[in-house]
Amino acid sequence: MTASYERYLDGDPLIVTAALTGGVHGKEANPNLPETPEEIGRAAAAVEEAGASVVHLHAREPNGERSFATERFQAVDDAVRAHAESVVIQHSTGGTAAPDADRHLPLRTDPPPEMASLDMGPLNRYEHLTSENTRGLVDSLHEEMVERGIKPELEVFNDGHLNEVFGLLERRDLADPVYATLIFGPGTLTRPRPRNFLNAIDNLPEGALFNTLGFGRHQLPFATMGILFGGHVRVGLEDNVYYRKGELATSNAQLVERVARLADELGRPVATPEQAREILGL
Amino acid sequence: MVCPFLEYRRESIGPESEAVRERAFDEPRAYCTAADRFVQAMRADICNDRYELAHDRDCEIYLEHAGDERFGSENGEGTESEEDPDR
Ligand code: SF4
User: Fold this and answer.
1) How many domains does chain A have?
2) B37: Cβ below 6 Å to ligand 1?
């Protein structure tokens, strides 16, 4: 924890990841959530302008339903690149209930994404679903990421998944620095309490960098803690559709602008995409 | 077999939260007539029985409404339909 707080004191640049779309809710929850490639491309440009250096992407069908197809991710990437030349592209490999083979498809765009998410273990959804994310799947996704030069973003849904990070490090060679997103919220996620945040930071592997993600109304306070404790932050409509209680966010950029203002006030400049690449070793 | 409560609609004035009550979409979108609202992208895969999902096992909304008389005749399936033994 001391080392990470020193990154705050040193004013290290803050990587802001914008999770633009997600794979769970859509425009039925917030009409400002981008779903089509063109909407996602324009949103990417707006969040980059607002201070995001990484965009976390999912693909959808034209009717807003989930797609894992390489072609749909390609269309999203092409639109992002048409509007935002330098932002770092990170694909999701998440997919509750989707076959393991489909989970690999987002890694196969041309060029491959610079980063991709790697879910570290099980997550319950609704009343009857579980995204299993077996170790076998984690290993096979990681293997393909290594082959394609993709940096994994390890998604840590709860403290048990910190053990899974150590397990993965025993099974596989991960390029430095290890980059883990610590996720706080309801259900299977780590209970969103400051003590749990500090505990999670303390239990990361030596030298690992962390990204901070709070779901829903926890997004802003956990992003603030992430800034203060030398981590990085993820915001966006995938994880939180509100700006404040009862008020839907008008865009992903609105959420990014707010954390960029906070970071500035707290003495951490937001990283440019080039700085993000340097920090993450892309 | 897709869920009998599933329809594809462009518009709704369903009883959702105040902020998102009225909706109009360019593409017809998965709408749950049991819950009177558009469904989430992830849940739409349950509604359509995609992958290994089954609405009559995996959707709590279906399980709650399976015996709802409002939908018995509208969906062309009686409450004792052999096609849908979970009802
Ligand atoms: S949400 Fe459930 S009940 Fe409604 S259409 Fe989908 S599967 Fe059927």
Assistant:
1) 1
2) no
CATH number, domain with residue A86 = 3.20.20.70
Q: How far is the CA of A70 from the centre of ligand 1 (A)?
A: 28
Interchain proximity A97–B45, CB inside 8 Å? yes
| In a domain? residue B58 | yes
> Which residue range forms the structural domain that includes residue A219?
2-280
pLDDT in tens, A60-97: 999 999 999 999 999 999 999 999 999 999 999 999 99
CB contact under 8 Å between B29 and A63, yes or no, is: yes
Angle at Cα A25 formed by Cα A19 and Cα A27, nearest 5°?
A: 90
- pTM of the full structure: 0.93
For B29-81, the DSSP string reads EEEETTTTEEPPHHHHHHHTT-TT--HHHH-HHHHHHTT-GGGTTTTT--TT-
Residue A186, judged by CB atoms within 10 A of its CB (0-12, 13-18, 19+), counts as exposed
Q: Which domain holds residue B43?
A: 6-71
ipTM surpasses cut 0.90: yes
Number of domains composing chain B: 1
